[in-house]
Amino acid sequence: MLIKHPLDIFPSEITPPEVYRGRRAFMRATGSLALAGSLGLQAGNAAAGVKLAGTRPGPYGTREEMTPYKDVTTYNNFYEFGTDKADPARNAGSLKPRPWSVQVDGLVKRPGHYDIDALLKLASLEDRIYRMRCVEGWSMVIPWVGYPLNELIRRVEPLGGAKYLEFTTLNDRSQMPGVRTSVLDWPYTEGLRLDEARHPLTLLAVGLYGETLANQNGAPVRIVVPWKYGFKSAKSIVRIRFVDKQPVSAWMQAAPREYGFYSNVNPEVDHPRWSQAKERRIGEFFKRKTLPFNGYGEQVARLYAGMDLRRYF
Ligand SMILES: Nc1nc2c(c(=O)[nH]1)N[C@H]1C(S)=C(S)[C@@H](COP(=O)(O)O)O[C@H]1N2
Ligand SMILES: [Mo]
Fold this sequence. Notes:
Number of strands: 13
CATH architecture: Alpha-Beta Complex
Distance between the termini: 36 Å
Helix content: 10-25%
CATH superfamily: Oxidoreductase, molybdopterin-binding domain
Largest sheet: 8 strands, mixed
Mean pLDDT: 88
Radius of gyration: 19 Å
Bound molecules: the ligand Nc1nc2c(c(=O)[nH]1)N[C@H]1C(S)=C(S)[C@@H](COP(=O)(O)O)O[C@H]1N2, molybdenum atom
Shape: globular
Strand content: 15-25%
Low-confidence stretches: 1-45
CATH class: Alpha Beta
């Protein structure tokens, strides 16, 4: 495959000056001038928990109380680091988020290997507070930092035949102790229909709470799809492939009766082993009702108009 430097691929597409000036004005207004003049994170800031400069508030926020940083970073699913909720925080220190590149290939006009630091500068970073819902019944409210995945998609120019995207997580035994076990058929893969991937809610996330992602949350780059069960939001991705057929995700492969391709949050469709009608917000005692599409129905329900969501679960 032809490998180009990402900046050679879309030289004219770096944040336009109007947006950039607007962002500086915003940064002055909020008093965070420390890194004014930089377009986001500078190369070499390898570690997790590095402040991301110049983010701006994005659309679709929620005013619900945010889950504390401590819970967001210590109660995780990331099976590459173990299956216990506390395992990722304990074990993910061995993940190296730099150097890192994401291979974009398949049915696109401009395939390539995108260096993470170039990806960070591709579009302006936004703060997006999203409700998240795990299929196991817990939920959180997380302030992500990222930009719409569509910003990347339109730059790589999908070909007419591209109908789905497949995401692949790093699969490296030396960095990920969990992949020595066979809980899943590694690497972890996930998929979205092209229109779902292009939906303005779908984020390419690089941070949370204004800082680069902690390793256990999927450093250095992950997908966030807030109207679907958590497992659709693949972490620490190394490849995005555009394909014509619906991909088989790692969870569909492991248990096809339990995990479908769509996995839209749906209180009316039970998991074969438990109900999905209620959820426990981390930090709260009483359960609350789960909302269809995790409360994002107004934005996304039209994507599924006419589909039987019991069949396409
Ligand atoms: N590579 C990979 N991505 C993954 C997982 C995983 O095990 N491996 N778990 C998924 C599940 S089930 C959930 S609920 C979310 C959890 O994300 P968080 O820990 O940042 O809240 O990550 C998803 N992405
Ligand atoms: Mo999950």
